[in-house]
């Protein structure tokens, strides 16, 4: 029996020590006073994104807190926001590679940097000079900076107030120009369209896209004229399933996506594998082999549509591009 | 298989069949008539109507049918009429119990339908730690046991009333252990309602081996709660499995007992969060007076069957539901737990919920409260004075994982219970001092320091064998600073609310009870609830008349 007493004593005074992190949020984060322990600093006063430079920010706070860094271009009005919840701001959570959160994209300009904290009045400020624009990692079909690319085949319907042209009136999206589409066609849904054949684009089958449809994104920046909501941008992607160099709509796949833009510029990125077959706007069975094969992409069509009874229709678009592995980040 | 015989005489109830056959048909049940006249006093409250009267009469009419010597059917119907609702909306009819039980081949006892089931405090047990306050306060105990306790099928064995089936059988061995008793169960915890909810069942059982020539007992317990896939569109299913073993050794001066087990919980969130942890407890009884126990329950040990308390501490009472000029919902107090069945739980909860710490910090979820380790020492000294009884209990516990800090909260509890009987008088006194303390690791965050003294006292006078007078008092206080945890559905703490405790609840009770016949008691009295919280005083005065009948 003395062994039992010994064993019990051992358990009582030697219960397993367990190295456990505290449960839940730290009380010091919830009830400690907020203070900025180290002020906001920027890793460089000038940054050239074109040459691959990057910039990050640093600060240290007394408690875990939601924070936001807002970078605003003084000339363009472009805005980049970086948010986080931490006790310190450092390289890992505040790196800026020149991307934009709120269009337009940043130009070569001075930028104001503002750091704010949730439920706190403290605001920390700094500045940074952009000396080189970010280079997009994407297969750009067109960004309309030099007009409409000659490889597009445009079509404009007969109608009133038809506007299918390059425009540079602010607000801008990417760069200094975008493509404006508008008009009244009271007898047809189609107002106009642009067609881009892969062969004309870069003489490469499938626009040089890989065959993994899950890794390919189609991107575009769109907006619709304020107070209008009748514009539809229909993007069609025709595949050459049988490899004969032509598209036959009876037995080859045509994937599509409908976009109904809002009133402000917005980047829409769609994975190629998520494109669907549409017939009169409704999902339908694909006509070809039913397999998403971006490397067999033969042609891209951009159709601008609007209900003929709805009157004037107007949408703008910019930066039509494919990207690989992730959405394009202008 | 040659070494054992089926144990035929395991169940005393069944044994009686062979001796004196009970009637094939009998009536049983109970009845209750109660009336409460309540009056509220809350300073500055010009909105709440100060008086509420409530009462009802109900009859539980049971039929016990024994179609043959091996089968028993028990059915019970409840008819309830709230006073003033005769032939109106106040009348209700319910099925209170439907059970079929019997013997198969005189070897297996089965129960189908409503059944009361409990295992061990760490595996399946209906914990009610706050109700320990009523112990010894005769008038409060009588009300609580005959009203909410009776309505929700509470008893002293910690059983849960469930619906399902159980199978019990025993084995006798010629060598090794003398006998083995087994119990298997399946309980339907939640119906699927045709796909509107995910059906939930509990399965498990217990096996116990007892040696005859050696003072050893070893048991094994399994409790598994499972959402059944395919019964709803949901593919995120809750599963909780608890596997434990327990035993005891010795029957002399030192008696050792133990239990240890593990839980694995898979929650029905999108990521199917999985948490597992263990518990163990070892106890030693020394002679007749001393008892020492060490227990450790891991922070992620979750078990709905053992951590769901009998009452819902966050419940909102029906009586004076909203009070004050702002019509704030009233927090349930001891006064309400004594009277209202609606504040009690009839089903297990798969989540711990937010902390409700008005009464308890050490063991709010019963013995199986997670994230606790510590020692309990009990001492029940022999006393020389005739009629005097005394028992003491000391507990030192600590968190295992810090709550929002690396510092661990330390819990201390000291309890003294004394009873004294002299001629027709009897008195009982219980004092419990509870303290929780945790130093702060940040000058801007206050230390956790809460004191919770409990006091309950009762003085009774038994005029004759049927007539009794009682005067009781319960007082609960809490004061200090603490932090109540908010938990998500996966029992993870997501926030701590700082709480400034400043609470005093005093319940004097006076009653006279008359034993009319058998277990039937007529009780009349006055119950007062005085609650002072953060300087605001609220009093409820309640006169009551109750007649509890069992037949």
Strand-helix topology:
The complex is a heterodimer of chains A (330) and B (551).
Chain A: H1 2-13, H2 27-31, E1 36-42, E2 46-48, E3 57-73, E4 79-89, H3 91-94, E5 110-117, E6 123-132, E7 139-142, E8 152-156, E9 160-167, E10 178-184, E11 190-197, H4 198-202, E12 216-224, E13 231-239, E14 254-259, E15 266-271, E16 278-279, E17 282-283, E18 297-306, E19 313-324
Parallel strand pairs in A: 2-6
Antiparallel strand pairs in A: 1-3, 3-4, 3-5, 5-6, 7-19, 8-11, 9-10, 10-19, 11-18, 12-15, 12-19, 13-14, 13-18, 16-17
Chain B: E1 4-7, H1 12-19, E2 25-42, E3 51-68, E4 71-82, E5 91-104, E6 108-117, H2 138-146, H3 148-151, E7 160-173, E8 179-190, E9 200-210, E10 216-227, E11 239-249, E12 254-266, E13 274-286, E14 290-297, H4 304-307, E15 322-323, E16 328-329, H5 334-339, E17 372-379, E18 388-398, E19 410-422, E20 425-438, E21 448-462, E22 467-487, E23 493-517, E24 520-533, E25 536-550
Antiparallel strand pairs in B: 1-7, 2-3, 2-25, 3-4, 4-5, 5-6, 6-7, 7-8, 8-9, 9-10, 10-11, 11-12, 12-13, 13-14, 14-17, 15-16, 17-18, 18-19, 19-20, 20-21, 21-22, 22-23, 23-24, 24-25
List its traits:
heterodimer, A: mainly beta, Immunoglobulin-like, Jelly Rolls, 6-stranded mixed beta sheet, 6-stranded antiparallel beta sheet, 19 strands, B: 551 residues, Maltoporin, Chain A, 5 helices, globular, disordered N terminus
| Tally of contiguous helical segments of chain B | 5
| CATH fold name of the largest domain in chain A | Jelly Rolls
> Could you say what the CATH architecture of the largest domain in chain A is?
Sandwich
The CATH class name of chain B reads Mainly Beta
Largest sheet of chain A: 6 strands, mixed
As a percent range, the share of helical residues of chain A equals: under 10%
Tally of discrete structural domains of chain B = 1
Rg calc of chain A: 27 Å
The largest sheet of chain B is: 22 strands, antiparallel, barrel
- With helices defined by DSSP (H or I, 4 residues minimum), what is the helix count of chain A? 4
Distance between the termini of chain B: 45 Å
Mean pLDDT across all amino acids of chain A: 91
CATH class of the largest domain in chain A: Mainly Beta
Indicate the multimeric state: heterodimer
Principal-axis shape of chain B: globular
């Amino acid at each position: 029996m003395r062994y039992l007493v010994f064993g019990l004593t051992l358990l009582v005074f030697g219960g397993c020590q367990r190295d456990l992190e505290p449960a839940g949020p730290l009380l010091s984060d919830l009830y400690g006073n907020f203070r900025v322990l180290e002020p906001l600093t920027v890793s460089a006063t000038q940054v050239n994104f074109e040459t691959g430079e990057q910039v990050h920010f640093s600060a240290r706070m007394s408690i875990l807190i939601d924070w936001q860094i807002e970078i605003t271009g003084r000339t363009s009005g472009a805005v980049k926001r970086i948010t986080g919840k931490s006790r310190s701001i450092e390289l890992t959570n505040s790196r800026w590679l020149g991307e934009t959160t709120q269009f337009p994209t940043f130009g070569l300009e001075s930028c104001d940097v503002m750091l704010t904290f949730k439920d706190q009045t403290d605001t920390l400020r700094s500045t940074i000079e952009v000396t080189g624009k970010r280079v997009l990692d994407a297969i750009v079909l067109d960004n309309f900076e030099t007009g409409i690319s000659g490889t597009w085949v445009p079509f404009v319907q007969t109608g009133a107030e038809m506007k299918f042209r390059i425009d540079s009136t602010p607000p801008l999206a990417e760069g200094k120009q975008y493509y404006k589409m508008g008009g009244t066609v009271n007898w047809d849904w189609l107002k106009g369209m642009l067609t881009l054949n892969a062969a004309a684009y870069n003489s490469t089958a499938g626009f040089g896209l890989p065959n993994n449809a899950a890794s390919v994104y189609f991107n575009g920046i769109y907006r619709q004229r304020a107070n209008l909501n009748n514009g539809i941008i229909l993007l069609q992607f025709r595949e050459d399933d049988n490899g004969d160099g032509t598209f036959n709509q009876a037995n080859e796949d045509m994937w599509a996506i409908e976009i109904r833009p809002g009133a402000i510029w917005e980047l829409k990125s769609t994975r190629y594998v998520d494109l669907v077959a549409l017939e009169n706007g409704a999902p339908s069975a694909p006509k070809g082999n039913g397999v998403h094969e971006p490397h067999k992409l033969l042609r891209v069509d951009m159709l601008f549509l609007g209900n003929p009874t709805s009157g004037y229709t107007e949408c703008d678009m910019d930066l039509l591009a494919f990207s690989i592995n992730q959405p394009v980040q202008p | 298989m040659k070494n054992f015989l089926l144990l035929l005489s395991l169940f005393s109830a069944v044994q009686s069949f062979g001796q004196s056959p009970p009637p094939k048909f009998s009536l049983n049940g109970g009845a209750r008539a109660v009336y409460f006249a309540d009056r509220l006093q809350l300073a500055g409250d010009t909105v709440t109507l100060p008086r509420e009267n409530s009462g009802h009469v109900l009859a539980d009419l049971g039929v016990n049918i024994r179609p043959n010597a091996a089968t028993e059917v028990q059915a019970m119907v409840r008819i309830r009429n709230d006073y003033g609702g005769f032939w109106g909306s106040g009348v209700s009819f319910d099925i209170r119990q439907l059970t079929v039980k019997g013997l198969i081949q005189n070897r297996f006892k089965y129960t189908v339908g409503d059944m009361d089931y409990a295992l061990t405090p760490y595996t399946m047990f209906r914990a009610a730690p706050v109700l320990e306050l009523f112990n010894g306060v005769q008038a409060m105990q009588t009300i609580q046991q005959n009203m909410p306790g009776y309505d929700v099928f509470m008893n002293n064995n910690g059983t849960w009333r469930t619906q399902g089936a159980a199978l019990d059988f025993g084995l006798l061995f010629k060598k090794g252990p003398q006998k083995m008793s087994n119990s298997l169960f399946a309980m339907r915890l939640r119906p699927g309602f045709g796909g509107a909810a995910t059906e939930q069942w509990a399965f498990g059982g217990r096996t116990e081996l007892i040696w005859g020539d050696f003072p050893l007992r070893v048991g094994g317990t399994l409790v598994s709660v499972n959402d059944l896939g395919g019964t709803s569109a949901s593919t995120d299913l809750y599963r909780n499995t608890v596997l434990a073993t327990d035993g005891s050794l010795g029957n002399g001066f030192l008696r050792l007992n133990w239990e240890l087990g593990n839980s694995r919980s898979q929650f029905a969130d999108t990521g199917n969060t999985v948490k597992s942890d263990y518990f163990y407890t070892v106890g030693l009884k020394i002679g007749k007076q001393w008892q020492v126990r060490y227990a450790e329950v891991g922070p992620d040990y979750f078990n709905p069957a053992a951590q769901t308390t009998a009452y819902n501490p966050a419940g909102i009472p029906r009586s004076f539901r909203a009070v004050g000029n702002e019509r704030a919902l009233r927090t349930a107090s001891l006064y309400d737990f004594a009277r209202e069945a609606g504040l009690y739980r009839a089903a297990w909860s798969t989540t711990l919920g937010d902390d409700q710490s008005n009464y308890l910090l050490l063991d709010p979820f019963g013995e199986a409260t997670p994230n606790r380790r510590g020692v309990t020492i009990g001492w029940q000294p022999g006393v020389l004075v005739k009629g005097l009884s005394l028992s003491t209990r000391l507990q030192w516990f600590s968190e295992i994982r810090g709550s929002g800090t690396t510092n661990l909260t330390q819990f201390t509890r000291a309890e003294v219970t004394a009873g004294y009987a002299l001629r027709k008088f009897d008195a009982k006194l219980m004092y419990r001092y509870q303290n929780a303390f945790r130093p702060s690791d940040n000058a801007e965050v206050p230390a956790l320091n809460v004191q919770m003294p409990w006091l309950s006292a009762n003085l009774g006078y038994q005029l004759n064998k049927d007539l009794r007078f009682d005067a009781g008092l319960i007082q609960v206080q809490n004061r200090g600073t603490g932090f109540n945890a908010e938990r998500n559905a996966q029992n993870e703490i997501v926030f701590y609310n700082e709480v400034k405790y400043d609470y005093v609840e005093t319940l004097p009770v006076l009653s006279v009870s008359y034993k009319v016949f058998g277990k039937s008691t007529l009780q009349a009295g006055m119950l007062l609830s005085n609650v002072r919280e953060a300087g605001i005083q609220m009093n409820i005065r309640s006169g009551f008349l109750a007649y509890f009948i069992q037949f």
